[in-house]
Amino acid sequence: MKTWAIVIAGMFLIVDHCGGDAVDASSIRQFVKKVEDSLVKGNIYHINYEVCEKRTDAFYAHKKELIKLFEQGAASELNETPPAQRDAAFAQKQAMYPQVIRQWKKDLTLARELTIFCDYSLDGTGFYTKHYMTYVKVDGTKGSWPPSITVSDGKIMGNFYLSQSQAVIQPATERPQGSTPVWTDTAYLFMQTPLSTYMGNYLDLSMKEEGGDFVITGEKKLGPKELGHSELRINGTTLTPESLVFLYYNKLGVLHQKLTKTWQYRNFAGLLLPKCVTEQEYNAVLNESPELEKERILTINQFDPVPLDAKAEFAKLLKSDLSVFDEITGTHYLSGNPGNALDKLSK
C-alpha cells in the first residue's frame, strides 16, 4: 500500500492506492473543493492583466458548414412534408431554423482576435480600473478602443473617457459594469463553472497519484457509445490545478469535442498566482477530427497586495479638464478645479 497524506486548511485527506483502487467519489469532491477554496482571490490588491481571445479559420469554416446544413435541412423538410402534415410542431421547428442561422451568421462577423488590457485595484472600500482593447477583424483589419477609467470611493462611481474629455458620475457599485472580464472567473472557472461544481457533476470519479501530481478522472455515460470524460491534474506540492481536459464522444463513439484549460503559476509578492491560463476549444465538423476553433489566454503581468487609494485617484481625475455629467443630481459641470466636489458628492 502506498499512502499520500494531504493537509489542506487543517483537513487531512488520505488517498490510499491499493491494487489500483482510489479514494471514494465523495472524498474526491471534498478534496477538489478544498483545493478550489485555497486559490488566491483576495479583496484587497492591485493587479494588471490581459485577456486575449482568438478564433481560427476552423471556427468560421465550422459556422459556414452548420449554416449550409441547416439551410438544406429546412428546405428538405419543407419539400418532403405535405401541407396536411405541417402541424404546430412542424411550424415551430421551421421557425427555429432561421433564428439559429441568423446567430451563426452573426458569429461569422466576430473578431479574429480581441485583447482586453486591464489595470484593476480593489482597496476594500472602493476600486480603480483602467481598460482598453485591441482587435483584429475577420478581414485582418486592426483597430483599438481608447482607454476608459472607472473609479469608486465606495459611495460614488465615476466613468472617465479621457480621449473624449468626458466623465459620468453615478452611485457606486461593487465593481464596474462592462465588458472587462473578471480575472478570477477567467483564471479559475471551467465552462463558466467552479471546478468543484464541474467535477462534482460526475458520479463516476477516481483519483490516482502520477509523477507527483494528483490526477482525477470523471466519466459520464450518456448512451451506449456517447460519453463525457474529464481529467483534472493537480500539483501534488502546491495543490494548484495544472490542467483540465474534457472529451465528448458522440453517439457513434467518435470524439466530437475537446475542451482544455492549462495553468502556469508564478510567485507575486509571496502569493502563488496563475501567471498564464489558456483555454482551448476543439470541435469536429461531421465525423472529422476536432480542430482548434477558439483560444482564450489570461496573462497576469503584475500583482501587488497594496492597492491604489481609490479616492485619491478619483480626485486626480476630477482635476482634469472634463465635461462631467452627474447622474445623481442630473447636472453638468466642468472639472479642473473641483475643490471639495468629491467629498460633497460622496455625501
Strand tally? 17
Which structural class fits the helix and strand makeup?
alpha+beta
Instruction: Using the CA coordinates, give the radius of gyration.
Output: 26 Å
The amount of beta strand, in percent, is 35-45%
Shape: globular
Report on the biggest sheet: 15 strands, mixed
Number of helices: 7
- Percent helix: 10-25%
Please, how many domains?
2
- Report the uncertain regions: 1-20
What is the mean pLDDT? 88
Give the termini separation: 67 Å
Strand order in space, largest sheet: 9-10-11-12-13-14-15-3-4-5-6-7-8-16-17
Assembly of the depicted chains:
single chain
Sequence of secondary-structure elements: EEHEHHEEEEEHHEEEEEEEHEEH
Mind sketching the topology for me?
Blueprint: E1 2-8, E2 11-17, H1 25-37, E3 45-55, H2 57-80, H3 88-107, E4 113-122, E5 127-136, E6 142-152, E7 156-161, E8 166-171, H4 183-188, H5 195-200, E9 204-210, E10 213-221, E11 227-235, E12 241-249, E13 255-268, E14 271-283, E15 291-304, H6 310-318, E16 323-326, E17 331-334, H7 341-346
Parallel strand pairs: 8-16
Antiparallel strand pairs: 1-2, 3-4, 3-15, 4-5, 5-6, 6-7, 7-8, 9-10, 10-11, 11-12, 12-13, 13-14, 14-15, 16-17
Helix pairs in contact: 2-3
